[in-house]
Every structure is written in C-alpha cells, then in structure tokens.
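BUG: 3D viewer hangs when loading the predicted structure for this chain

Environment: internal workstation, default settings.
Expected: structure renders.
Actual: progress bar stalls at 90%.

Input used:
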Amino acid sequence: MIEGLDRTPLTRDFFDRPVLDVAPDLLGRTLVRTTPDGPIELRLTEVEAYAGEIDPGSHAFRGRTPRNSVMYGPPGHAYVYFTYGMWHCLNLVCGPEGKAGGVLLRAGDIQVGADLTRKRRISARNDKELAKGPARLATALDVDRALNGTDAIAHPGAPLFVLHGTPPPRDQVRNGPRTGVGGDGATHPWRFWIDGDPTVSPYRAHVPRRRAT
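Structure tokens produced before the viewer hung:
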C-alpha cells in the first residue's frame, strides 16, 4: 500500500461522462486487480479514448455487435477484447448507457504486487516494463475475456476496481494521436499520458497489414 494514496473508490458517476472527459481524468488513478494470489495495484500513466459510433477507430463505429455490446453500458464496466490471436486488452466503459464509449488502459506503474506480475511478464527487462503497453498491462494483471463485462466499481469481492489515486497536475498531461490507429481515426489526438513517466509506451503509427502472397 502506498503511503498518502487516496484510496477512495471511483463511483459510477465518474465514468458516466463523455469519454474525452474521463480518459485524461483516469491518469494517476489506481487500478486494483484482486487475484487468488493477492492484490495488484497499478497507477495509470497512459490511456486512449474511443468514442463509439462517431469514431472510426472504435470497435463500435459500425454499430452494436455481440463482441462490442459491453461498450454500450452501463458505465464503469470492463470491456476486454482479444487481438491478433495472442493478446487481451482492457478498457473501461464510460458515457451514458446506450451510447458506446470506452477508454483503453495502455500503460501503468505497478505499485503493489510486482512479484506477482513478474511471473507473468518474464520478458520484462525491469519493473517499468511490466505494464508498458496495453497487452503487457492485461498480461501483468491476469486479465482475459473472463473479465469482459465485469463491474469495475468497488464492491465486496470485486476482481477489478479503481481508486482515486494521485492524479498528476494538468500541466503534466500530454495528448496526441492514438497508437496504431489508421484510416479516418488516425489523427484524433485521443491518447493521453503523463509526461516523462518511464512506464509510458512509445508511440507507433499505424502500419497496414499485408496479405501473405
């Protein structure tokens, strides 16, 4: 437990706001993952906003499907998807119920339970790399599709929830294009991070995937 950390849980009202308000406001918050082996706590340092049906980069851009239905609410739930046949990514749903929106949790600083995450992230060269990138974050926290739709508002036995934590000063928050997003959503400056934090992942522009010949 980090001394001086505000351990007040975030409420559903926090997430029941526009995605571009919620995303930067998640920086510095403490994500708690309860596992059978013990708790893991991570300070969020990098996120990306996805604005549903108005956002070409969002899974919900073409409307509701069985895969993305969690994005339509209620707010404060976890949306977990599987990508490239290898990795899971963790999002938190926000905005009013019925209107898709979510924040991808891209990176964070493990503050409690690093010993547990090292077992899952054996390729990490140091602790700052344990959750440096969305797939690494999900792997470190033992997140998979079993958590899709989980209520991430604190309640007894909650496997995942968010505390108030230690938000950075506003002048330390930066924003720019989202990593790996192509097409009409490529230039949306909806990636937010804490300036100078070593756990923030490097920006990578979208590279179209080529079919094998």
